[in-house]
Each structure stands twice: as C-alpha cells, then as structure tokens.
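Treating backbone geometry as a discrete language has practical consequences that deserve illustration. The sequence in question and its structure tokens are set out directly beneath this paragraph.
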Amino acid sequence: MDPFYTFHIELKRLNKKLLNLSAQVEERFRQATSLIANYDEQVAQALILNDYQIDEQEVEIEEDCLKILALHQPVAGDLRFIITVIKVNNELERIADMGVNIAIGARAINQSKSKALVKNIDFSEMSEKVLQMLKNSLDALITRDASLARKVFLMDDEVDAQHDYIFEAIKDIIRQHPEHPGGLLNTFLLARNLERTGDRATNIAEEAIYLVEGVVTRSNS
C-alpha cells in the first residue's frame, strides 16, 4: 500500500479517536458538575470507577502519535496537527481527572456535617461558564475556528472572578464556623477544580489557534 495513502488514513483515524475522547470527556465533566447541586451516588460512582477508560484512550492516542511521527516524519500542517493532538490529548485527560475530583468532592460534601453551611453557595453560573469554555474550545479545534478559540480567553477571566468570589464566601463561613473545616475545604476545592478546568479549556483554545495559524498564543490567564 502507498505510504502516503497509509499516512493519511492514520491521520483520519487519529482525528476520529480524538473526537471520540473529546465527546466523552465533555459529557463526563457535565455529569460531574451536575453532582454539585444534585448529588447522585450512582453517577459519582460511575465517574470515579470508569476514569481508567479515559486514561487508556489517552495512552493509545499518544502512542499513535509517536508511531506516526517515527514512521512518516510529517511536516508543515500535518506536523502541527500531530503536535496539537498530543497536547490536547493530555489536556483532556487532565480535565477528566478534574471531573473525578469534583465527583469525590461532591460526595464528601454530601456526607459532611457542614453540608447545610454551604447550601447557599451557588456553583451553577461558574459550572455553566466552564462547560461553555470547554465546548467552545473543542468546537474551535474541530472546526478550526481561531476566532471562536480567542473568545474562550475572555470567558476565563469571568471564571477566575467567580472562583475568587466563592473563595471569599467560604472564608467568611469558616470564620463563623471554624469547627467544620473539612466540608468547607471540599467546597472550595470544587471551585478550584472548576477554575483549573477553565484553564485547561483555555490551553485547548490556544492549541486550536496554533493548529489554524501556526503561531504559539498564550492568554494572560
């Protein structure tokens, strides 16, 4: 079989694998954020126990990339695509880990004696913003839309502001109820994992711009 033909078949397969992983990670992270307001032990358990599936796919995609680099020595746009896949693949695995952290945190809060103290802390706006960042960054990557990718940078500033607001709210509660640090700390860690996921989504947006324009872009987040 013609090596050039084989190379492009492998690129298509790699792209398909990345799209599949992206869809799975986005859906799992959406499920994780839903646990903050509406805890469901079955959903949390499934997210935690099945995290290995994402890890295995991440390893498989990385191995495919290294194999293509070794066998075909791609250049120009094809090389940019491989580099982008390697970086985005890693970001997706990290985002999946954040989702697991959120599931574990939501479980801890649900079982905590301090649950009632944090019931008025609303994560819905921050969660939706992070989910939108993730969706936009992946859409920008898939459609190769650098303009959409740059919009993610602005959303990251909003998520950072929401993180800071929640942090201050939790500090106030800790001052009033120092006897319940555990559940309160877990509540802060929910915000921290959401904020870090926003950072990961921003990284994916940066890689989308690199894929399209061939330039390294860094937001000021």
